[in-house]
Amino acid sequence: MPSSGQAVTIVLDEAEKLHMLHPGQVIAYTGPSGGRSDRLMDVKGMYRKRNLIRADFTGSCRFIASLPPGFNLMSIPIRGGSDLLYDFRHLFYYTDGIKMQTRLLQFKNMLITRDAIKVKFSGEGEIGILTKGAVVEMKLHPTEPLYVDARSLLAYPENAQLKLSVYGNHLASQHMHYQWQMTGNGSVLIQSGHDSGELEKHLQGDGLFKRVLREVIPFGGIFIK
Prior knowledge:
This is AIM24 family protein. The chain is of the alpha+beta class. It is built from six helices and 16 strands. It has helices spanning 43-49, 107-113, 170-174, 198-203, 208-216, 220-223; strands spanning 7-12, 17-20, 26-30, 36-40, 53-58, 61-66, 71-87, 91-95, 98-104, 117-132, 135-139, 146-149, 153-157, 161-165, 179-183, 187-191. The strands form three sheets. Strands 2, 4, 5, 7, 8, 9, 10, 11, 13 and 16 form a ten-stranded antiparallel β-sheet that branches. It has a three-stranded antiparallel β-sheet with strand order 1-6-3, with no helix packed on it. The chain has a three-stranded antiparallel β-sheet with strand order 12-15-14, with no helix packed on it. The radius of gyration is 21 Å and the shape is elongated.
């Protein structure tokens, strides 16, 4: 994971309008002074983004936005409708013409994932989604489950059947993060940037004997450093 953030350049044509949900990330701007207009978000937006202000940019203009360390920006065109559900916290910007509908997760899933709302996009335009690491697309099967680390699931079809689960034998299920067990039609988007740190420790020379002790001794991960 990089130690410093990246920057992205966004260019608008004369007739385009873009809503930036994290205006504090804009580090440079070129265009008419009136091309940017900040305003208070509605109550739903404030709650979902933990932010008060959004910035509306109107072309013709160009601006540069910085991204948090470890994050990338994925631009996704929306044409008509998309059946994918996203976490609203990952939304960085959206263009005029995009409509949003919210979907509530099941209560038991809210408690474990600490996530309550997903967003579905429709209309004509583009959205910018913050991602960690590379993004991989995987197809769902109506009956054969796909298991995805709950921290890595970026988007999934609204028709998908989800339940929190683990898999493998007893030892495997004890040493994995919660997984989404998923079936349905369509594809899911998975981001690869979540890391437990185990591989980095291994590459830095953490010995096999220590790793074995951490696994077999109760609370070994706490007492054996």
